[in-house]
Design brief:
The radius of gyration is 15 Å and the shape is globular. The chain is 28% helix and 34% strand. The protein has helices at 14-24, 31-38, 87-102, 116-125; strands spanning 5-9, 43-49, 58-66, 71-78, 106-112, 128-137, 147-155. It is built from four helices and seven strands. The structure holds coenzyme A. Residues 24-25, 76-78, 83-89, 111, 115-118, 120-121, 124 line the site of coenzyme A (COA).
Amino acid sequence: MSDPWLRTLDGDWLEAVERIEHHGQPHPWSRVQLMGALTDPQGSVWGVGVGEQASEGLCGFAVLSRQPFDAELQAITVAPQVRRQGLAGRLVTALIDQAVGWGSERLLLEVRASNQAALALYRRSGFRDDGVRRGYYPPLNGCGAREDALLMSFPLVGSRG
Ligand SMILES: CC(C)(COP(=O)(O)OP(=O)(O)OC[C@H]1O[C@@H](n2cnc3c(N)ncnc32)[C@H](O)[C@@H]1OP(=O)(O)O)[C@@H](O)C(=O)NCCC(=O)NCCS
């Protein structure tokens, strides 16, 4: 793979982001939710891609929101055909840098307890386990028991300079 690019995305990227979300997520965000994230002045959406910095080159994206003291990683999806090539790791690094730039104290997230790929990504990126929210998620395939959310955080204060 050629050297990937990283950039923030705006509403012009909606179709490309939607394509990745719908191919890559079992419970995809709606078009309205994605547009909300892409145009949210209290957040940013980062994209990673290869080749031209245009919609065809987009391989993955992540949504970061700014809160009074912390930042929250709200979504991250990489297209299935380009997984395990370090692209999500690059996105997480960009989000950490962005949150440091905002002066956030921590980068927070919640993740399905069964999402082994995401858990491995976050732990490898330096997130620590903070707790469990029991029965937070509806069952993945619509039936069966609700699923726990694991709460994780990455401390930012003192992580630079
Ligand atoms: C989770 C996800 C974003 C990871 O994207 P990715 O680009 O494949 O991740 P990376 O290549 O950057 O992986 C970085 C590290 O995470 C871990 N990891 C990633 N995918 C993994 C998997 N399927 N199984 C085990 N570990 C995995 C590994 O430690 C990996 O490093 P390595 O490849 O050197 O071993 C991707 O699988 C995805 O889009 N899943 C569907 C959406 C989703 O679940 N998002 C998270 C919601 S909270």
